[in-house]
Write a structure and sequence with these properties.
This protein is of the alpha/beta class. The protein has 6 helices and 14 strands.
């Protein structure tokens, strides 16, 4: 296993149903925020962090994303005939990503502050971790409904049911994916196994994170971005 992660999976296959009419004719990662599609915001972080291998998975309106990315240094993992969820989608893309660990990123968020990929890569310690999730204190989140996802212990270990919010970016070891029998499954299944072994960790992001789960998040994110560039 490589000690460092030098490949990135961007999850772009979902239906984006909570965006309502905005995703009727385009996939969610193609929704524009501050004049740029969400997928391009994610790819800008990858380019700035000099990630050599980037894979984007597609399913819903796959051709829209694939046409947008044509000619760029991005590999496509199309999920057919059915969508595979985060765990199944990542497992299908592993031949393109190389041996683990890998980074994954959800494109339906806006990060304001230091490069999230560099933050998590700097904190990665494979001797202690099988996964490292980039998390936030609730006061550093914008546009999020509901409570937190995890409790973060002083030693960095994560357990379920605390105030800390998972930001959708992580590094994880992928070997455990091969032991899961389902075709379609969430990475939560792998996280729970890592948690039992005490090897699911988190690190706090020092900047601001904007949730784009619903249309109401778009103006909030654009307002935060405008403030950041004043």
């Amino acid at each position: 296993m490589r000690p460092d992660a030098d490949s990135l999976m961007i999850f772009a296959a979902g239906f984006g149903t909570r965006m309502g009419p905005l995703t009727a004719e385009r996939p969610k990662p193609m929704i524009e925020v501050a004049g740029k599609p969400l997928i391009d915001h994610a790819l800008a972080w990858a380019e700035a962090a000099a990630i050599p291998r980037v894979v984007v998975n597609t399913h819903y309106l796959a051709g829209v994303i694939e046409d947008h990315l044509h000619g760029r240094n991005v590999a496509i993992s199309r999920e057919e005939p059915g969508i595979l969820d985060t765990g199944g989608g990542l497992r299908q893309a592993l031949p393109m990503l190389g041996a683990g660990p890998v980074m994954t990123m959800n494109p339906d968020v806006i990060w304001i502050g230091p490069n999230p990929l560099e933050v998590i890569r700097a904190a990665w310690d494979p001797a202690r971790m099988d996964a490292l999730l980039l998390c936030l204190e609730p006061h550093n989140t914008v546009g999020r409904d509901g409570g937190g996802d995890f409790a973060l212990a002083p030693d960095g270990r994560l357990t379920r049911g605390g105030p800390v919010v998972y930001g959708g970016t992580q590094i994880l070891v992928t070997e455990g994916l091969h032991g899961i029998g389902d075709t379609r499954f969430s990475l939560n299944l792998l996280w729970d196994r890592m948690m039992k072994d005490g090897r699911l960790h988190g690190v706090l992001y020092p900047g601001t994170w904007c949730d784009l789960s619903r249309p109401s998040g778009i103006p909030l994110a654009e307002e935060q971005l405008a403030r950041a560039h004043v």
